[in-house]
Amino acid sequence: MPLPIASLYAALLAGLFILLSIRVIGARRRYHVALGTPHRMVERVARAQGNFAEYVPLALILLGLLEGMGLPGWWLHALGTALVAARAAHAFGISREPEVLRWRTLGMGLTFAVLGVSAAALFALALAGL
């Protein structure tokens, strides 16, 4: 079964991940850091990328499962849009010096909301299908 909505957000988030990765490469070159994160800015951009890599896969799995279970498209778009916005806000906030805590907090809060709502909806749909 095709999953066009989940695929759309997976593609958008893959683009954002590539941009975050390019920022890490640029910071490593700029500060001459081949391995590790001994410089504050290298650590910041690396954590923005790493945090993205930690949360986005689960969110996309949930989105795909929800689409497969028949969740209405407008719900999927709302969750996907919130996830893209959340990860962009978090990356913006954490990768600044000084840190912009407001954006970092917004990004994490919205990410947790997407994960929580998605998990609850999937749980409800799974129970209804039993």
What report would you give on this structure?
The mean pLDDT is 96. It is elongated, with a radius of gyration of 16 Å. It has one domain (4-129): Membrane associated eicosanoid/glutathione metabolism-like domain (Four Helix Bundle (Hemerythrin (Met), subunit A)). By secondary structure, it is mainly alpha-helical. Helix 2 packs parallel to helix 4 (101-129). It starts with a helix and ends with a helix. The protein has helices spanning 4-30, 40-68, 73-94, 101-129. The chain has 4 helices and no strands.
- What is the general shape? elongated
Report, as a whole number of angstroms, the end-to-end distance.
20 Å
Give the topology string: H per helix, E per strand.
Answer: HHHH
How many E strands? 0
CATH architectural name:
Up-down Bundle
**How many strands, which pairing sense, and closed or not: the largest β-sheet?**
none
Number of helices: 4
Residue stretches low in confidence (pLDDT < 50, at least 5 long) are: none
Give helix % range: over 70%
Structural class: mainly alpha
Q: Considering the protein shown, what is the CATH homologous superfamily? A: Membrane associated eicosanoid/glutathione metabolism-like domain
Radius of gyration: 16 Å
Any idea how many domains?
1
Mean pLDDT across residues? 96
Question: Which fold name fills CATH's third level, the topology?
Answer: Four Helix Bundle (Hemerythrin (Met), subunit A)
What's the CATH C level? Mainly Alpha
Strand content: under 5%
